[in-house]
């Protein structure tokens, strides 16, 4: 990191807000060559606007003198852009201390962005191509909230970015450490609720189901704990005999840079990534349709108008969109490696633009599991998550925790991220929901024969620990909503639905809403009653630290010579079956 700026006086924080400046934390500037990395965007924008509006006239009136004048104007724009970026850089500082992260900007109009430690969700390190060539990186601090709720520190040296990431994550960890025990003692409990401690058997009696780890062999948490602590089981399952990030060649070090700490969970070889894209019918058909559409437009344009500059300019966005779509899918899994650390799952991905992300299991609100048709033979699966505070819809973003993984990698990833589903064997239950035909799965579906396609492709299953929604005709996908994360449940209908005896049900968590449409009225009301009770009690009477934790994450926190950690107790509920059940059985 750069040296502290002695001339910058700390600003006064708003009343009632803990300020990192007030605590005397030094403020730093980003790397001095940051203006060179950010200034080119201004130049490209100016050139794009001028040429897009005047390209035809510029080509018709082209002379050497005008070309030299244009180059001089571009050079002036470059100098102005660098000067403006340098001024912005000089008046931009950041500070990190035990209270949070603050970022100060502005020369005339000053602004201050502040991320208090209790609201920090995750920290990612991004390396765009130009910054990567210069040895720089951007640190993004995701803050709980809606929309673009993040704080960017751009750019610092790559080594300093890793140090800054660890520092911010350590600050975020301080927010929950001293409060967990107090919350467990002071939080009111409903009548009949079990205490937070207790044996696994006592807690199994309360929850109505014993949690099994997400392992392919169906072992219990106690059996999996030694192997998890040592790392032998997961490492062998994810990448037998190879860990290129730490001991590989120079090319391996380049591909898997920035992720060398922690226990290896998943590592995607390049050949598997390429084969998975060729087997993804949605990606293949989408690419072919785009290429054929652009080709058809070119043929029609040449047939009607002939080859001219205006036609090329009109089709230029389409020429860029197709390669960008293909390259984006490749980048989403290129060099992907995930490792489990003390602060959650850390992932690295990217070819030209690389990024590393950190996701803690307690922040996950929803999981989406996807398996296209041609992925069934090699038994590949993709997993993405919805994280509170992260609004990232791109496929190469932090939410894509496993672009294409084997069954062992799937079990290891979900074992460290997903709370137990409450069945005897969670991974076997998940596999059944993915592979079995929808009519053979017991659950809720549309009752009318009019919806004959949806009746054969969609089903909602209520498990003791989660609500699962299965969809898809050829490719199959699952939405998994942990019942502890439910924030709102609502039903709605219209005149036609009332006449047909149907209801629409919406189940919402932070950042996402699951829509279950056209359910039978009695089934929808019964499911609404069960989930509304979950939303009332599980979130109200439990602190976040008391929610069911992923089994492998709990086992990892246990020392090798201590018994494995038990799942915290839940409020007393009627006993629920360990197999998929309908809402009537859970009332």
From TrEMBL:
InterPro entries assigned: YdbS-like_PH
The keyword Coiled coil is annotated on this UniProt entry: no
Start-end of Low complexity biased regions: 189-201, 215-225, 567-587
Chain intervals for the UniProt region annotation (Disordered): 1-29, 179-225, 552-587
Positions of transmembrane segments: 36-56, 68-91, 281-303, 309-327
Keywords: Membrane, Transmembrane, Transmembrane helix
Protein name, per record: Predicted membrane protein
PANTHER family recorded: UPF0699 TRANSMEMBRANE PROTEIN YDBS, UPF0699 TRANSMEMBRANE PROTEIN YDBT
């Amino acid at each position: 990191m750069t040296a502290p700026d002695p001339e910058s006086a700390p600003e006064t924080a708003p009343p009632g807000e803990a300020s990192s400046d007030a605590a005397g934390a030094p403020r730093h500037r980003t790397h001095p060559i940051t203006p060179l990395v950010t200034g080119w965007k201004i130049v490209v924008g100016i050139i794009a606007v001028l040429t897009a509006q005047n390209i035809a006239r510029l080509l018709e009136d082209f002379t050497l003198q005008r070309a030299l004048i244009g180059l001089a104007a571009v050079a002036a724009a470059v100098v102005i852009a660098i000067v403006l970026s340098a001024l912005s850089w000089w008046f931009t500082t950041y500070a990190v201390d035990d209270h949070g992260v603050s970022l100060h900007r502005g020369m005339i109009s000053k602004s201050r962005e502040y991320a208090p430690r209790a609201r920090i969700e995750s920290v990612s390190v991004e390396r765009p191509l130009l910054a990567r060539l210069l040895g720089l990186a951007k640190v993004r601090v995701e803050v709980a909230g809606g929309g673009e709720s993040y704080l960017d520190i751009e750019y610092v040296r790559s080594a300093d970015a890793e140090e800054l990431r660890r520092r911010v994550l350590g600050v975020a960890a301080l927010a929950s450490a001293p409060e967990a025990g107090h919350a467990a003692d002071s939080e009111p409990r409903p009548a009949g609720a079990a205490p937070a401690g207790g044996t696994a058997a006592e807690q199994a009696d309360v929850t109505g189901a014993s949690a099994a780890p997400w392992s392919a062999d169906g072992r219990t948490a106690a059996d999996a704990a030694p192997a998890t602590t040592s790392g032998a089981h997961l490492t062998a399952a994810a990448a037998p005999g190879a860990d290129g990030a730490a001991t590989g060649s120079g090319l391996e070090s380049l591909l898997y840079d920035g992720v060398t700490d922690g226990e290896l969970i998943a590592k995607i070889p390049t050949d598997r990534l390429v084969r998975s894209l060729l087997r993804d019918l949605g990606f293949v058909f989408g690419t072919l349709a785009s290429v054929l559409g652009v080709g058809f437009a070119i043929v029609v344009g040449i047939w009607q108008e002939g080859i001219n500059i205006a036609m090329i300019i009109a089709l230029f966005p389409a020429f860029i969109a197709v390669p960008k779509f293909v390259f984006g899918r490749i980048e989403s899994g290129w060099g992907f490696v995930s490792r489990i650390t003390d602060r959650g799952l850390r992932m690295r991905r990217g070819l030209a633009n690389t990024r590393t992300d950190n996701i803690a299991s307690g922040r996950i609100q929803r999981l989406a599991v996807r398996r296209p048709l041609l992925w069934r033979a090699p038994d590949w699966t993709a997993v993405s998550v919805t994280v509170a505070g992260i609004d990232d819809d791109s496929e190469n973003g932090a939410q894509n925790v496993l672009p294409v993984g084997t069954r062992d990698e799937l079990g290891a990833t979900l074992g460290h991220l997903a709370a137990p589903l409450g069945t005897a064997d969670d991974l076997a239950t998940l596999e059944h929901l993915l592979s079995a035909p929808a009519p053979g799965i017991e659950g809720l579906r549309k009752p009318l024969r009019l919806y004959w396609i949806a009746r054969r492709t969609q089903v909602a299953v209520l498990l003791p620990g989660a609500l699962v929604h299965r969809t898809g005709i050829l490719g199959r996908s699952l939405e998994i909503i942990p019942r502890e994360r439910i924030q709102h449940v609502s039903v709605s209908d219209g005149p036609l639905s009332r006449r047909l005896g149907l209801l629409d049900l919406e189940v919402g968590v932070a950042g996402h809403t699951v829509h279950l449409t056209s359910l039978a009225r009695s089934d929808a009301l019964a499911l609404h009653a069960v989930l509304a009770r979950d939303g009332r009690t599980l979130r109200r009477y439990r602190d976040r630290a008391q929610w069911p934790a992923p089994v492998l994450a709990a086992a990892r926190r246990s020392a090798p010579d201590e018994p494995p950690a038990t799942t915290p107790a839940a409020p007393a509920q009627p006993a629920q079956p360990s197999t998929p059940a309908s809402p009537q059985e859970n009332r």
